[in-house]
Amino acid sequence: MDTTLPAAPADTTVIFDYGGVLSQPQPPEAVAELERLAGVPAPDFWAAYWDQRRSYDGGLTAVEYWDRVAHQAGAEWDTSRTNELWAADVSSWLHVAPESVDLLHRAAATGANVALLSNAPAGIANALRSSPALSVLRAQFFSCDLRICKPDPAIYTRVLDALDLPPERSVFVDDREENVQAALRLGIDAHRFTGSGELESFLTQRLGPV
User: Hydrolase among the record's keywords (predicted)?
Assistant: First the structure.
């Protein structure tokens, strides 16, 4: 049976996720630094960090987010320590994945439009807007600006509307299955990222050689 996917239209836009696709995981040294700055048991810190993260990605300010994390984790941080945590956190997410970024640039070189859709708070979003690694992006969309997080269907329709793009001319790449499934239900050609090798094969099927 032929399992080759049909080629995407010539005026296709490929929409990439950032975290887990174009970025590396938080490095171990960054994780250790956040735990040191937090000064509370690591399990308590990370439970609070992730429990509050969706609200942070959805537009909560840094002050509000770190206050909530402190309250849940039982920590007491002054303004200077909170700022150190904020800066260390932002920095921890700015390590790009070279192979994926190379594919992003190669996809753009085929003539396809490339864009970004990421669940991210304002501090990270602001840093990514000026990242040289992402300079080929036609547009960048962040949940903190849209006040909606993936996999809410509304975030995909907002992006398609902003790009004046019908679903059938869009390709979406994300590492989370729930985000991929939400896009598929809207008619977007969505693909779950599991590694740069399979992403290269997928993009080649959809765009031609990359």
Answer: yes
What's 156-199 look like in SS3? HHHHHHHHCCCHHHEEEEECCHHHHHHHHHCCCEEEECCCHHHH
Classify each residue of 56-69 as buried b or exposed e, where b means 16 or more C-beta atoms within 10 Å of its C-beta: bbbbbebeebbebb
C-alpha 188/C-alpha 171 separation (Å) is 6
Model's pTM, two decimal places? 0.93
**Close Cβ partners of 65 (under 8 Å, ≥ 6 residues apart):** 52, 55, 56, 121
Phi, psi of 88 (to 5 degrees): -65, -35
Second-level CATH architecture of 13-24+96-207: 3-Layer(aba) Sandwich (3.40)
Domain definitions of the chain by residue range: 13-24+96-207, 28-92
What is the rounded CA–CA span in Å between residue 199 and residue 191?
9
**Sequential pLDDT tens for the chain (210 residues):** 333 444 555 589 999 999 999 999 999 999 999 999 999 999 999 999 999 999 999 999 999 999 999 999 999 999 999 999 999 999 999 999 999 999 999 999 999 999 999 999 999 999 999 999 999 999 999 999 999 999 999 999 999 999 999 999 999 999 999 999 999 999 999 999 999 999 999 999 999 999
